[in-house]
Each structure stands twice: as C-alpha cells, then as structure tokens.
Amino acid sequence: MESDIRYLTDKKGKRTAVQIPYEDWKRLTKENQKLRQLLKVKSDLQEAFQEVEDCKKGKIQLKTLDQIIDEL
C-alpha cells in the first residue's frame, strides 16, 4: 500500500492532501466504522457501570422496566 500513496503539495512543498487507492479507502472506512461502533459500546457500558455505582451509593434510583419501555 505504501507505494500507492500520492501526496498533493502546495507551492512551498507542504503536503495538503493524500490520494490512496479506492480499495484502500473502502477498507479504511469500514475499519473506522467498526472502531466507532466499538467505542460507542464501550462508552455505553462505562455509563451503565457508573449508573450502577451511583445507585449503590444512593445518588440515583434505577428505573423500572416499565419506565424504560414508556420512554421508548
């Protein structure tokens, strides 16, 4: 892949853009999407564990299943 990369530069020679083969772009985009989904899951889990800790400390009260369903 390294040899297929092309750089666009300005008049001073500073890199301003990169060109990569389309197949590489599709692969990188797909990997990026998977990583974003994993980060979302991680964030949601961290939030859920924090809610449980807050509940144990009496800071918040957990919702009932009926309350959760009503919010949908």
Secondary structure topology:
Blueprint: E1 6-9, E2 15-19, H1 22-56, H2 65-71
Antiparallel strand pairs: 1-2
Walk me through what this model shows.
There is one protein chain. The protein is of the alpha+beta class. The protein has one domain (2-71). The chain has two helices and two strands. It has helices spanning 22-56, 65-71, and strands at 6-9, 15-19. Strands 1-2 form a two-stranded antiparallel sheet. Strand 1 (6-9) and strand 2 (15-19) form a beta hairpin. The longest helix is centred in the middle third of the chain and has 35 residues, at 22-56. The relative contact order is 0.08. The mean pLDDT is 93.
Short description:
Strands 1-2 form a two-stranded antiparallel sheet.
